[in-house]
Amino acid sequence: MKGKSNDVALAATTVVLGIIVGCSSLLLSMFLDLTEHYFLHFQETNLVPVDISAAPVRRFLAVLIGGIIAAVIWYFLQRHYHPVGISKAVAGKTMPLGKTLVHVCTQIFFVGTGNSIGRELAPREAGAAIAQKWTNSFGTHSHWHFSKEDQKMIIAAAAGAGFAGVYIAPLTGAVFCIELLYRKVNARVVAVSLTMSVIATMIGSIVKGYQPYYLVGNRHFGLALVPLALILGLINGALGTLFKAGVTAASRHRAVTRNVLVQLPLLSLLAGGIASFYPQVMGNGRGLAQLAMNTGKVSESAFLLLLFGLVAKVAVTLGTIKCGGYGGILTPSIAAGAVVGVFVGALYAQLVPGFTLGQAAVLGATFFLTASQQAPLMALFMLLEVCHLDYSALLPLTLGVAVAIATSKVLKNRFTY
């Protein structure tokens, strides 16, 4: 059976890991809710995505204390261990399950206290670590043999399922597996990744329900948005590429020794100070993105409010990574792109009416995410799913995604990724 997998074992593994990874995503969602409740007395929803009612001093202390605790955990965790990326795990590098789960829970805690980074990396890493442990434990058994190729596929699919279970987005989870991790398309990987993500989504929805993550308002995207999509594809394709270059540079110089005990608390001190008067900077960027999508018209005050949020969110997120924090950049990318979408959309609306600025924000978010992740299909399906858009959004989104990734490919050789 060398080099060939048992199809029955693969099918059983797909179902079992879908359940286990779905449960891990559910538990991480509950841990996030518990952290937000304890530190901020706040229950996050799509109507109230960020804590705007807490006293400024409470927001400040929550972010600061969260940063100090996370810095201590990451310092001791990394004395004899360095977090293993999902791509390296797919390639065969060992992801120690226990230490990875501590790392994952620290990320969720860090975001739950209001610190600025994405939370979507944690469930993906948990899924990958669980799947790798499963394949290593059972892969040598004569009845549960998996080829090296199928081991890679299982780990990639479990990472995507981890995302799907938190964001209730099964297509995005499957596409994440195929486009970013496994990088091959065939019936086998489509069946495994989609089945695993659907099962994880159903389990995750026990806590999260099946509500849109972002509220857009008008979900019908008319033809008037097509030229705007092309324009935003160019602009946010370039900006997303720059953001990705910044993330790469920050990651390369990340504090991992005793420096993290100083740098990360200082960064949280800054982030907490901003959060005390501008709560939308907190967390994974959902608050800022929703603020952009709620914008009806751009007055001078609204422009300044969004501009400050854009600069603060990008700067604090990059600073978090540089100072030793870990997490994702998907939702911060969505937040930044949504704000740019509103700015460009407001100018475009002077010439071509007939759309909302919330729709422009969705377009901007999708194209910025496309470039920052180098994943056009994942970005497209993610915004479709988390916003519950209808089919009319496909035309402007698809055109803009194509322009954004083309723009990014032209520019990215100028930056070291």
From TrEMBL:
Key words, A-Z: Chloride, Chloride channel, Ion channel, Ion transport, Membrane, Transmembrane, Transmembrane helix, Transport
Signal peptide bounds: none
Predominant location category: membrane
Membrane-spanning ranges: 12-32, 60-77, 154-182, 189-207, 219-239, 260-281, 301-321, 328-349, 361-384, 391-411
Subcellular location: Membrane
Pfam families: Voltage_CLC
Membrane topology designation: Multi-pass membrane protein
InterPro entries: Cl-channel_core, ClC, ClC-type_chloride_channel
Name the record gives this protein: Chloride channel protein
Protein species of origin: Limosilactobacillus panis
